[in-house]
Amino acid sequence: MEKKKIKLTISGSSKKTISNIELTKLKGKNSVIIEKKLGRFGNKASFTKTNNQKTSFKSKLPFVFKEPKFSKPFTTSTNDFEKRKLAEQRATRRLKEELPQRGKSGSKRRELKLTISRALSGEDIETKGRSLASLRRARQKENRDLKKEEIKENLKPIKRDVKIPEVITIRELANRMAEQSSNIIKHLLGMGVTATINHSINADTAEYLVQEFDHNPVKEQKTEEIIKKIKEVKKKKLKNRPPIVTVMGHVDHGKTSVLDVLRKSNIVSGEFGGITQHIGAYQINYNSNKITFIDTPGHAAFTEMRARGSKLTDIVILVVAADDGIKPQTVESIKHAKAANVPIVVAINKCDLQNADPQKIKNQLLEYELIAEELSGDTLIVEISTKTKQNLDKLIESVLLQAELLDLKTDYESNATGAVLESKIDVGRGPIVNIIVTSGTLIKGDYFVSGLKWGKVRAIINDTGTSVNEAYPATPAEVLGINGAAKAGDDFIVLESEKEAKSLSDARIQEKQESNNPLTFVTQDSAFKDKTSEELNIIIKSDVHGSSEAIKNAISQIKHDEVKSKIMLSDIGMVTETDVLLAKASNAVLVAFNVKPSKEAKKLAEQEKIAIYSYNIIYEVLDFIKNKMSGLLTPDVQEKIIGSAEILEIFKVSRVGKVAGSKVIEGEISQDSNARVIRDGTIIFKGKIESIYREKNQAKQVSAGLECGITIKDFNDFQKKDVIEAYNSTVTERRI
């Protein structure tokens, strides 16, 4: 009996080709006919399996599969393969539409392929369930999506609190906002401002930019505000302190002489020219009462010193010479004292002289609202004489009376604060600052800040030259241990630790650097500004900072439209090799005030032919600078026309060249005089008349109305109707 053939319709998503099915079929024992249902295009195919292990393929397709040989690869034509692939795809789509979806959700296995065993067993073809790998991939996709959402949330702009100083660079602002500097520059370009990453902007502009980038601007606390809090005097345990008295007045009125008598010393002899050029502080003890005196210079150049002294003082002693009266520096001292709102005690000096007139001085003081007590005023006026020591004790008593009225008290237990009166560099001891302690107690070993410098107190030396361990309020002292030369007028603040002192000094340096680099805008006026004025470069080296400052300020007051002074360096200490090299590189004038050059610097200056100008009196320095600046001025040249001649004919003479046959129109033409050739109203040449010919003979001069031949040195381009104008010039040197 012939075995019943099993027919199976191929469908599903299996990607197995017919060739692979053919290979698998060879391994089976039974024969299976696989019939392909009619597709959309009506083609039909079937497989027949027999017991002799031979396979025949019945199909309407134009090809038949033969038994494969494993020694050679199984190949088909490209067109046949594409047709089979399309037929499989159509069958797969139809099976998905006809078969119901699998209802069991707990299936753990996904049927991917149609196998011969499944076909023989008659197992129903069901829809495919999700495998573990598929579920794993789905979870991974969900996790990736969640991560993307988290990243997006994290990428949302963060609103930051941005500290804004007075001046900040665009780079630093971008770093503080965590923004790209290019975005800030683009924003500035939109505002019409061209800037680079290294440009500095002020606080207002920075605040605007921070707000534009959706951040919170916070104005940074200045170092001065921090210092103000440190300086706040504790109101606990206040004690009386000695008064600080500043002696002020015109030069040579006897200010230092008063202190000489009070201190029983001879300070005047130590000053060059008999004038005080350094600010000094001294303390005296009168009937168990201490008084601190500050001596200020009287010369006009020392205005800053006087102003500095008035800011520190409690009482001002105004010294006026009875034989000289009120002078410009006297008036200036009165203004400083009134600006500082301190009481004034007037000392009329030199009352022992025959031409002394104290009453005249009192009347002059009325103009400045200084009314004596005998005239129902509140100003104490004492007539003294330093030569005869007249009424000096009365002067001190007047000062103590004013101090008692002021009721001066301060805290002795807090950290010391003070002010720098002077600074200098000692060859053996290094940088030194002269200070006055205003509050607290300065102790050896304290860490401090003074201006941009900081240090540790290595030694404290009082006004008598004695080394001490402590300095109390209103006490003048020399302090050693600063890391550089401080600036006169700077504050002096003691801090708790070295770290605090260093950080505060660094913060001040940073603020100064930022303030020196503001954002500038190029305008048409600045771009085309006349820069033809001459400059005199100056290097100043002095013994103390106060003198250097006074010279610098005095030079800055010397102004002229055609020449300017430029301070290349103003420092303290002896002249070094570096100063000489700087003077050579910048073509500067090197001025040494009360200092000498080192041996190396002196030798180098001789080699490089650099002059070092040494002076001891400030008058001489200022006169020298004026002379140097005057030398850069263009001298005044005055011209006087002495005659003119018109060219009528031009002749060529052997060994002479071209000769202008001319007629003198006005004045006279002289040999060797200056001449200019004028053509059509324009000067075409300036030179000197070389020779004058009159009737073939040389002549020294020719008067008006006469004809002559004229030759001009280095000029032969004569034309008819040119005018030769003869003139004399006078050169006058100009002074500032």
Radius of gyration: 52 Å
Whole-number mean pLDDT: 76
CATH class category label of the largest domain: Alpha Beta
Q: Biggest sheet, open or closed, and with what strands and sense?
A: 6 strands, mixed
Q: What is the straight-line distance between the termini?
A: 143 Å
Beta-strand residue fraction: 25-35%
Could you tell me the CATH topology label of the largest domain. Answer: Rossmann fold
Which class of secondary structure composition applies to the elements? alpha+beta
Q: What keywords describe this structure?
A:
six-stranded antiparallel barrel, six-stranded mixed beta sheet, 37 strands, 19 helices, alpha+beta, 736 residues, Rossmann fold, flat, single chain, 6 domains
In words, what does this structure look like?
The structure is a single chain. The chain is an alpha+beta fold and 736 residues long. The chain has six domains: 7-100 and 113-121, no CATH class; 161-219, no CATH class; 242-407, P-loop containing nucleotide triphosphate hydrolases (Rossmann fold, 3-Layer(aba) Sandwich); 417-515, Elongation Factor Tu (Ef-tu), domain 3; 531-631, Rossmann fold (3-Layer(aba) Sandwich); 636-732, Translation factors (Elongation Factor Tu (Ef-tu), domain 3), CATH 2.40.30. Helix content is 30%, strand content 31%. The protein has a six-stranded mixed sheet, sandwiched between helices. Strand 30 and strand 31 (657-670) form a beta hairpin. Helix 10 (303-312) packs parallel to helix 11 (328-339), helix 16 runs parallel beside helix 19 (618-631) and helix 17 (577-586) runs parallel beside helix 18. It is flat, with a radius of gyration of 52 Å.
